[in-house]
Amino acid sequence: MITLIYAHPYPNRSRANRVLLDAVRDVSGLAVRSLYDLYPGFEIDVEAEQAALGSAHTLVWQHPMYWYSVPGLLKHWFDKVLARGWAYGAGGTALQGKRCLWVTTTGGDEQAFQATGMHAHPLSAFVPPVEQTARFCGMSWLEPLVVHAAHKISRVELSEHARDYRQRIEQLSSATGGEGG
Amino acid sequence: MITLIYAHPYPNRSRANRVLLDAVRDVSGLAVRSLYDLYPGFEIDVEAEQAALGSAHTLVWQHPMYWYSVPGLLKHWFDKVLARGWAYGAGGTALQGKRCLWVTTTGGDEQAFQATGMHAHPLSAFVPPVEQTARFCGMSWLEPLVVHAAHKISRVELSEHARDYRQRIEQLSSATGGEGG
């Protein structure tokens, strides 16, 4: 089982994330949880979320990048669902050994993510908080899938990313664990 | 005017953040907005928040670190309040030239924030998303105030941090701008 946590604040305005999600949603053994649809008032059902992770060997976090990070509801999900005694700390082994794939889109292109670009840093400068969240819960961190310039790239390029994404999800789905990160 | 955005998910369980906040809350010209008290259901009043920032020359973000970042409600506040056309993008100059002070507490001590420590990175690895959020809005970034091991440090040490904090806020309060970052 793969649990895909999808966090798009405006699902109807999405271009790239929708194409990416549509490319994988019918892979067998994959379950999508669209947080902004499930919890429009941010009232996360922690038990339901934990149950959905418990049955998975792989966790996907997919979202557009908002302010160099995850959108607010996914951050709130981290705060509530990845609880001490469940995800970390004494007795907190629920996610130990699972794999975590981060799939994110950015508005800026690769030029923007340079020391001299409008975001003043390479994208890698914004990875540690998300990666370390997964690692602190004992998950193995897979190579992230990042789509830059999500509003501007051509349909062809977007389709290529979608195809890559599907391929990775299919591989993860057929593996039962142990790919490592 | 200084606007202090306070984001503690469990204000009643706070130790360090409460001491820090109490040390500055009566500085003249400072207004505190406690997000988790104002918006327990995450229903941020964007206009009220923007108005509170508009009248300030300095903005303070104070919170305990949650998952190497700001708590969910403060992230949601970034997403909603720092809107395109207001905080950035065409016509988005509302925060230009204001100063931004980040005040945060961590559970881990300085040892934990090392390559070999339990958080696998120095704290500086987790700064770019927050710093670049301020800078992208044209704010000048001040040297952050970080209190490590917030649950464990002695009262004396905590009082010293509180005194430093008050001193910095008083200086910022008497300056009318231009300290730079």
Report what the structure shows.
2 copies of one chain form a homodimer. With 181 residues, chain A is α/β, with parallel strands linked by helices. Chain A has a single domain, classed as Rossmann fold (3-Layer(aba) Sandwich), CATH 3.40.50. Helices cover 34% and strands 16% of the residues of chain A. The first copy, chain A, contains 6 helices and 6 strands, in the order E-H-E-H-H-E-H-E-H-E-E-H. Chain A has helices at residues 16-24, 35-38, 46-54, 72-81, 128-136, 155-174; strands at residues 2-6, 30-34, 58-64, 99-105, 140-141, 145-147. In chain A, strands 1, 2, 3, 4, 5 and 6 form a 6-stranded parallel beta sheet that branches. The longest helix of chain A has 20 residues, at 155-174. The relative contact order of chain A is 0.19. The interface between A and B is medium-sized, with 31 and 31 residues.
